[in-house]
Design a protein that fits this description.
Keywords: Membrane, Transmembrane, Transmembrane helix. The chain has about 400 residues and is mainly α. It has 18 helices and no strands. It folds into three domains: about 120 residues, no CATH class; about 30 residues, no CATH class; about 210 residues. The protein is globular.
């Protein structure tokens, strides 16, 4: 974790050196140190919590307190929480503050707490987690996204609620509401609280990324697109249930692709709620007059593109390695890359019209944004046609 964090921090430091008047070597070193400490802290925290058999609710409460503390630091422009102290190390090339050295002491204390109770780890639980991680790595190698998601939920013990948030009863009379729509919402209403909070968190990340995009950091459009894509993957859970049960899927008296397309409506509605969170989060960095003008234009295409792109990734299932092997290694490599890259790219394409909005809050070019949105809908239309051709896969 420390090595991975150092590599990521060094890359971010090098990119920042191109935009900020700082020494590139100092920016790379500070970024690597800051992110390496974050990696060490993450591993040590997991070790300390596992050694003390900490239950999920005090761990989540502690995490929420630390995140809220850090958020208050950001809003109040202070540096008091452990996370903001670690982040301050990355800014040493701009302003050096020795107070940030306290974060190194905090990391050392957490490491000591983790190592002091390492003997209390449950061997059985550790073996189970190791087995799940081994399966997870194998699924990642095969680019089987659905299996990766299911294994990650097992690792985090993220199970559906036994009781829905709101119970949808059976209609006594014949209803005009499609059964697929009702089943989709029955699935959403059993989402556990951590999953809902994660979806909201990714919505906030997307909103802040789009705010940074409007302020001139163009690469943040990729971060926003990936965040929306990850949220949409949870929103496409009803589609995943169809894919997980191919015999049931093909038993319906309709074309398989038509049944998949019936799930788009509910996923689209969920993504509109997420887009509302995105717009509210963007207000931190963007004036209200800019946000509401662009939101009116972008809500529908972005929500639809995110929902459809995640459904493509879900519906395509695991790759047919036997069939791909006949294409040769060169073509097979490109096909595997396309399977992985094209779905999130559709979401990013839907966000591209924002680049034509301009940076003047008093002269937002809504006409140009609206015209560019029409072109992004072609990608969404192609994705819908692809979903129309999907069929069940049997092992």
């Amino acid at each position: 974790m420390a090595f991975a964090g150092a590599v990521i921090g060094a890359i971010i430091g090098e990119v920042a050196a191109y935009r900020l008047p700082v020494n590139p070597a100092a920016a790379i070193a500070s970024g690597a140190l800051s992110f390496a400490l974050v990696g060490v802290l993450a591993s040590a925290t997991a070790l300390a919590a596992s050694g003390r058999r900490l239950r999920w609710w005090p761990a989540n409460i502690l995490a929420a307190v630390l995140i809220a503390w850090s958020a208050l630091d950001v809003l109040g422009k202070r540096t008091t929480s452990p996370f903001t102290l670690l982040a301050d190390i990355a800014f040493w090339p701009i302003t050096f503050q020795a107070f940030a050295l306290i974060s190194i002491v905090v990391v050392a204390v957490v490491v000591w707490l983790g190592l002091s109770r390492i003997g209390d780890l449950s061997i059985e639980h550790a073996l189970r987690r190791a087995g799940l991680v081994a399966q997870l790595r194998f699924a990642v190698t095969l680019q089987d996204v659905r299996t990766v998601v299911l294994l990650r939920r097992q690792l985090s013990q993220e199970n559906a609620r036994l009781r829905p948030w709101i119970r949808i009863g059976r209609s006594k009379k014949k209803s005009f509401i499609p059964p697929t729509w009702k089943r989709d919402w029955q699935s959403y209403l059993r989402f556990p609280l951590p999953r809902l909070l994660r979806m909201a968190m990714f919505g906030v990340i997307a909103g802040l990324s789009l705010g940074a995009l409007w302020r001139g950091t163009i690469p943040m459009i990729i971060v926003a697109g990936l965040a929306l894509y990850l949220v949409a993957y949870d929103a496409s859970e009803p589609t995943a249930q169809e894919v997980d049960h191919p015999t049931r899927w093909e038993s319906f008296p309709e074309a398989p692709g038509v049944l998949i397309l019936q799930h788009v409506a509910a996923a689209f509605v969920v993504m509109t709620f997420i887009c509302a969170i995105v717009a509210a989060s963007a207000l931190i960095l963007v004036p209200f007059a800019v946000v509401w003008k662009l939101a009116l234009i972008m809500f529908v295409p972005v929500a639809l593109a995110a929902a459809v792109s995640a459904m493509i990734s879900t519906a395509q299932g695991a790759p047919n390695m036997a069939g791909l092997a006949g294409l040769g290694p060169d073509v097979m490599g490109w096909v595997m890359i396309a399977r992985l890259v094209i779905p999130p790219t559709i979401t990013v394409i839907a966000l591209l019209p924002l680049l034509s909005a301009g940076s003047d809050p008093n002269a937002i070019n809504t006409t140009k944004v609206g015209n560019a949105t029409v072109y992004s809908l072609f990608a969404v239309g192609g994705a819908i046609l692809y979903l129309r051709t999907r069929k069940p896969k049997h092992l």
